[in-house]
Structure formats: C-alpha cells, structure tokens
# Entry
Amino acid sequence: MTRYALDKVLWEYARDDGFRAAFDADASAAIATRELDDAERAALASKDIRAIFECRAHPFLIYGFAIALNRGWSFDMMRDYVAQLEGLELGDVET
# Structure
C-alpha cells in the first residue's frame, strides 16, 4: 500500500481548490501520476469513503475529504459519513 500518497490526495482535496476542481472533473486523471495501488485508485475515483478507510488512510484526512465532498459540514453529511464507516475497526493511525 502507498498510504502516504493516499493521505496526500485526501489532504489536497480538502485544502486545494484547484486540485479539488480537477479531481471532481476527472478523478482518475487527477491521480494518474500518484503512487497509488489499484485499490486506492478505485476507492478515490469512486469517492467511496468506506473503501478509502479500508485502504488504511488516516481517519482525520478521510473526515476532511468527506466534508469537502459535501462542500461543508452538515448533520445529514455526518449521518451519512458515520453510516458508511459503521462496523469498521480503527487500525494503526500512526503517521
């Protein structure tokens, strides 16, 4: 796995408007040069929060990504986010 590259994509999406726009327009193209494995690419391209978590991305960065996907925090976003992660166990979050 290429956890650093995965985490970096999540961080950039939440913080860089230009990267977010490119990712939203064509996620696969936006991450084409990143050192990601196939599972990470698929999870990111589909914006699948559960799959991203299962790829061992840092939970704090996943949360920021989810908020940015929603274009801001809301109770509905939070309910959906928690539902997507239900039943998963937190792994190693050491950076």
Remarks:
- The CA atoms of residues 43 and 51 lie 5 Å apart.
